[in-house]
Specification:
alpha+beta; 4-stranded antiparallel beta sheet; 8 strands; Membrane-bound metallopeptidase
């Protein structure tokens, strides 16, 4: 969601890089086909490859598909025989150390491009003297192969019967979200998700029968990976929202300080802009958090249905099986992941209310302060206007009397006498008398207007 054509094309190119160049065109052409399950190599389905290491001859195959809105890939590699031992290939005992060569080969085939959503490692082998205990010994040896990155004490989850063989489950999942979220560029920066299954079979027929479940595993682990991916995204969003809480508290403190002192409207308006920006980001991330919950719910439902299909196939084969470990994952998702996201969403939703209330409060205070200043300014203009008008009227009326503009007659007025004592010359006397009278009447008119405005405001309140 939210990805444009350029983003989709980039995702496609990133996926195609994992395959030989000769396959790029057909994969891109098949990618245009609509459907929930599209085999990207067409009828041929798989593309085989041969390789070798210093010790072994290897063989493998690609099986790329598009699963709805995601790409999926089954990439298989196995030891065909030791170099120089072609004749004994089927009867040859291969040590568990061969998984070092196999994993390196698979990573080379993937062009060292990690999966975007998730990946699962599935290891398998046949054990001639098979017993559950012997199988466990072999798996313990596998966990000591450095390249597999397994820890028996920390990562081992469960063991169960599967098609007469044994299935061992390892999982290491950790979230490590850095304080500075700007350093995060993809899901691998915030979570470690190492999921490995090891199958030990008693014979070749059992192994071949188990291979028929590969396509079911592909879908099942597709849903599982999307669940884990969505949970990781939810915790990343939760971190972003919590960082926004710090800004919310800071804005609240700024607003309290502003109210307790002389209001700085310019600063308050800038705070309002910042709060509105935070509200936008916060609401978007909160909606994305809710989206992750729905993503988990949908994929968990699909996971349950696919697991039920696998169980029904196993029942039809009438072999001893127990997939309680996969059922336990369903319970963990319900009890932990979904519940935690629901609680996070509910608690963080309060931030929207706080931001909205803060915006309304700042707007209310700024609007009141602005109206008060506007009213004060209008009062000053009114007082000044009345005073100016009264003074002008006084000058106009006084100009109608000849005595007021004759120097000698003007000096006889009380105002003229006072001005004469102050040293005003006879030539400047008419102008000085008119200005003084005008100014005095204007000031009295202004004071009277100010008094009337004050009385009106008192009655109004």
């Amino acid at each position: 969601m939210g990805e444009d054509t350029a983003d989709i094309t980039q995702n496609q190119e990133r996926f195609v890089r994992r395959f030989p160049e000769r396959l790029h065109t057909i994969i891109k052409q098949r990618n245009t086909i609509e459907g929930e399950y599209v085999e990207l190599l067409g009828k041929q389905g798989k593309e085989t490859f041969d390789s070798s290491t210093v010790q072994y001859s290897l063989k493998g195959w690609y099986y790329p598909v598009r699963l709805g809105d995601s790409y999926g890939l089954l990439l298989d590699c196995s030891v065909e025989h030791s170099l120089g031992n072609v004749q004994q290939a089927k009867n040859e005992n291969i040590p568990v150390s061969c998984f070092t060569d196999l994993k390196r080969e698979l990573e080379k085939q993937l062009s060292n491009t990690p999966s975007t959503i998730g990946q699962v490692w599935m290891l398998s082998g046949q054990l001639s003297n098979f017993t559950p205990d012997n199988a466990k010994v072999i798996v313990r040896e596998c966990s000591q192969v450095n390249e597999l990155n397994l820890n028996w004490d920390l990562d081992f989850r469960d063991q169960t019967q599967f098609l007469g063989g044994m299935l061992f489950e390892f999982w290491r999942y950790r979230l490590h979200i850095p304080p500075d979220l700007r350093k995060v560029s993809n899901i691998h920066d915030i979570q470690e998700n190492n999921y490995t299954l090891i199958f030990i079979y008693p014979d070749e027929n059992t192994a071949k029968k188990a291979a028929e479940f590969n396509f079911d595993w592909l879908r099942l682990f597709h849903y599982r990976s999307k669940i884990i991916w969505a949970y990781g995204q939810s915790q990343y969003l939760k971190k972003q929202l919590r960082n926004d809480w710090k800004d919310i508290k800071r804005y609240q403190e700024e607003f309290k300080k502003a109210k307790s002192g002389k209001l700085d409207l310019k600063k308050l308006r800038q705070t309002l802009v910042n709060v509105q920006d935070t509200l936008w980001n916060y609401s978007v991330n909160l909606n994305y958090l809710g989206t992750q919950k729905r993503t988990i719910e949908i994929n968990l439902l699909n996971y349950e249905r696919r697991l039920e299909n696998i169980k029904q196939k196993l029942i039809a084969l009438q072999t001893p099986n127990n997939l309680d470990n996969f059922q336990q994952f369903i319970e963990d998702v319900k009890r932990k992941y979904l519940l935690q996201i629901a609680n996070d969403y509910e608690s963080l939703n309060i931030g929207l209310t706080l931001l909205t209330d803060l915006i309304n409060s700042i707007r209310g205070v700024t609007e009141i302060e602005s109206s008060e200043r506007d009213r004060t300014f209008q009062g000053i203009v009114a007082i000044f206007g009345v005073g100016l008008a009264a003074g002008s009227l006084a000058v106009s009326i006084a100009g109608q009397f000849p005595e007021a503009i004759h120097p000698k007659d003007a000096a006889k007025y009380p105002v003229g006498s006072l001005l004469s004592e102050l040293g005003v010359t006879e030539n400047w006397m008419p102008v000085s008398v008119l200005c003084t009278v005008s100014l005095g009447i204007g000031i009295m008119a202004a004071l009277a207007t100010a008094l009337l405005i004050k009385i009106f405001e008192l009655f109004k309140s």
